[in-house]
Design a protein that fits this description.
By secondary structure, the chain is of the alpha+beta class. The protein is built from 13 helices and 7 strands. It has helices at residues 8-12, 28-36, 43-51, 56-65, 69-76, 85-119, 129-132, 153-165, 210-216, 232-243, 253-269, 275-285, 288-299; strands at 125-127, 147-150, 169-170, 179-183, 192-195, 218-222, 225-229. The longest helix is centred in the middle third of the chain and has 35 residues, at 85-119. The relative contact order is 0.10.
Length: 300
């Protein structure tokens, strides 16, 4: 699992003094997760949380369920002897799994998914995991379960036809859905969702539609292939509203890390987030609470 250990450059920035007293309502285990699971862990706060009585076994178990096992591992790997055997084994297996998937899956996604679409003149808008992985310190730190693609309504059917010609097959499901799910025999367990919308009409919690994302798209290179991604303001809104859906309610810490990664990347590779524009977009989407929660998590 060496690929998820801190590099010298990361470690040099990971010993910043603690930012005040332990947060998370005085729960040292929660404080450990917040301190460890950012793009770069705050090792000083991690140490303070452990000294305050953080339960390493509970933190590790929660990290697996919250999809941040690889992020936590960087900070607590030197303390592996303090984990119970069963929890250490579960954490190590999950970290190895996400490392292997990143190494084997993402290059194939570029070749088997994005390249055929780009060559056909229908590059997709890619959101969430696939769009974010290369903005993490390492790809393996951002696990994902699927790929989410958007197209202009006039291009969606043609794009799905392109994928079918390249051995992608539609997964038929009962009931109303807002996406077409495609699977590939060489990528078992990793579906691709081609979105017509962000949710079904009876699940719409915000005034944000797929057309809004498509209109905001910008050209990018993902996995060495031409595609579209979102500008940071719309990307933050999309992440926050996804995390706040009634059947999610911010139940994955990984999405909060995504928000922090988008903010940091925008500041590193450009002028940063236009906070006034984000406010405008948030108000249009009626998503003030969702964005406030997402930004509060990212600040931690």
């Amino acid at each position: 699992m060496s690929s998820n250990r801190l590099t010298d450059a990361e470690r040099s920035g990971a010993h910043a003094p603690p930012h005040g007293a332990l947060d998370a309502g005085g729960d040292p285990t929660a404080a450990l997760l917040w301190a460890a699971c950012g793009p770069v862990p705050n090792l000083a706060l991690c140490d303070a949380a452990v000294e305050a009585g953080a339960d390493l076994d509970r933190a590790a178990t929660l990290a697996v369920g919250q999809r941040v096992s690889a992020l936590l591992w960087r900070a607590i790997e030197p303390r592996r002897a303090d984990l119970s055997v069963d929890v250490l084994d579960a954490l190590a297996r999950d970290v190895k799994r996400v490392e292997a998937r990143a190494a084997m899956l993402l290059p194939q996604l570029g070749e088997r998914l994005l390249a055929p679409l780009a060559e056909a003149g229908t590059p997709p808008l890619v959101v969430k995991g696939v769009a974010l992985a290369d903005r993490y310190p390492r790809r393996a730190l951002r696990p994902m379960d699927d790929a989410d693609l958007f197209f202009a309504p006039s291009e969606a059917a043609a794009a799905v036809a392109v994928l079918r010609r390249h051995d992608w097959h539609e997964l038929h499901r009962e009931g109303a859905h807002y996406e077409t799910v495609l699977v590939h025999p060489d990528l078992p367990g990793f579906p691709v969702e081609v979105h017509a919308e962000l949710d079904t009409p009876d699940e719409q919690a915000f005034r944000l539609r797929a057309a809004d994302l498509w209109a905001a798209r910008r050209r990018a290179t993902l996995l060495e292939v031409e595609a579209f991604t979102l500008p940071p303001e719309m990307e933050l809104l999309a992440i926050a509203t996804h995390a706040a859906k009634p059947f999610h309610i911010f139940d994955r810490l990984l999405w909060s890390v995504d928000v922090a990664v988008v903010i940091e990347d925008a500041a590193t590779d450009g002028p940063g987030v236009d906070w006034r524009w984000l406010q405008v977009l948030t108000e249009r989407a009626r998503a003030q609470t969702a964005v406030a929660v997402a930004l509060t998590h990212a600040m931690r």
